[in-house]
User: Fold these one by one.
Assistant:
Number 1:
Amino acid sequence: MTTSTLMRVFVTATVLTLAACGGGGGGDSQTTGTISVAITDTPADQGIAEANIQFSGLAVQAAGGELHSFTFDPPRNINLAALQGGLSEELLRDAPLPPGRYTWIRLDVNAEENVTDSYVRFDSGEQYPLFIPSAEISGLKLVATFDLPVNGAADFIIDLSLI
């Protein structure tokens, strides 16, 4: 691959699991649900030794207009190359969220052009910053409607694939 080709590595995301599982019962007076988000990687045969993605936060948009944001301080670094063969890493676990309908999840990724907070390192030792054109403005947005029931859980596994 040429340097100009490598300078722009794009990430695509596929929501593998969209599960809003109802729970509850009895006398539990809890009126929230929870959301968990994990990251995995589709195997890539591109000679990639490391694909470090830096996540600064996550946001979930309610259908009624309220945005629920979760900030990672410090930012979370996840090496996608280590998450192949069915492995995943939790980004957010059992975070409280009001029940209701949600329209999208946004991953806030630090991947500006010519900055190495997120990067790809090849087997050859060459390393290039990861650039996602919309990262600074809108993050990596996954548009999929889901319902979170009272006392329920929404568990997601997001498959990121370097192309």
Number 2:
Amino acid sequence: MKTIIILGSGFDKDLGLNNSFEEFSKCHLNPTCGNAEWGAFENTLRHKVLDWYKDGMDEDLAKEINTLWRMCKNRLSNFFTTKSDEFCLNTDTCAFKFLESLSSHYKIYSFNYTNPYEYVELKNTYPITHLHGRYHKDTFKKDMMVMSQGCNLVVGIDADCLPSDAMSNPYIQALVKTHQQGYVKTDLKTDLLHVETIIMYGLSMCEVDYNIYFKGLFNTIAEGGAMCKKIFYITACADSYAAFREKLNKFDKKNKTLDELVKITPIYTTLGTQNETFYKLLNML
């Protein structure tokens, strides 16, 4: 395996399924962080748990935090159920052409809850590893089924950010991703260190995901020891690419020298499927 593909919410949006956190907040008012990135809710949840721990681990407060978390998961499940009916496929999008061009040579990871193959009709489909669980489109849209779908969505905090004795409380332990029903241990961190080419499509990358999955890769690149030689970053436009690079620099100052160590090629979907750089990438797949 020489190439891995990582899908973010921008891929779904380009495909025609707008399931951004901003869109979610319009449908279901989020009680903590409004119209922000997906990672913002998890950061808010993490701070609530840390404050709970510092203030003496009150049992009633632990129940309140757990209720907030469960409410968000149920609302997410309802959101995806509603959005499934609003899906508007455009076969002229870069996302569709990209999906159509894939082969079994690549390992695909996704930060999205949706599986794109449930929404498009293609002759060939390939396995996708969902890092945060997934929503299954082909279930009955009844209240109990929607609620059970919420169990498949991995939303919460990471064990690394909590003192070990905090997880002795069952209400708090339930929030930890590794203890959730939909959690599946993956090889993404290892794979990132053992491939020559990485394709990121629509990945905004919040700080939590950077620290968990990507920090090792970028640190290894900065130290000159990475196998990775090429990164294709597919995003909407130059502004969104600049925002991505700004985040990387903020997360670690060493990332400012990335271009000297690895070839990073931005591809802008707003330029359409005939964009020369995108066309070359499709021929590579």
Number 3:
Amino acid sequence: VNLRAKYASDSADGNALGLGGRDTDSTNIILSLTVPLYEGGLTNAQTRKSAAEVRRARALLDQQRRITIQQIRTAYLGVQTAISSVNAYKQALKSSTTALQATQAGFDVGTRTSVDVLVVEGSLYNSARNYSRSRYDYLLAILELKRAAGSLSALDIKNINQWLVD
């Protein structure tokens, strides 16, 4: 923005008698505004760069959103699988306990050998181990689901510790 002001005063004498002379005053004020329409592409390039950065940020946000949704779905399916495993191994443990009782009863009456009892006891211990492992896997699946959903807290850890003690 430029501002220029000019003042001029002119006095002209007429003839020798002082007749016909004139005095002139003039004032000029000029205000000018210069707006560059094109500066070699700098503004245009910065605009394109900013637009590209916005598109990149949106793409990264969408990608992270899809990853998070996939992690939550996977963790949820892991919990469902772990629940089924716990129920199956719990039933297997009951069956192994019943089989051991039947084999011991057969040993007591003489229809089973001690080897039969030991084999069934080994099966019972395997069933107990598998049941414990499935419960542990269930806990890990719950923790993973809560982590993926962003809701894992110290209280969750405390509750799981209490559950493990019981």
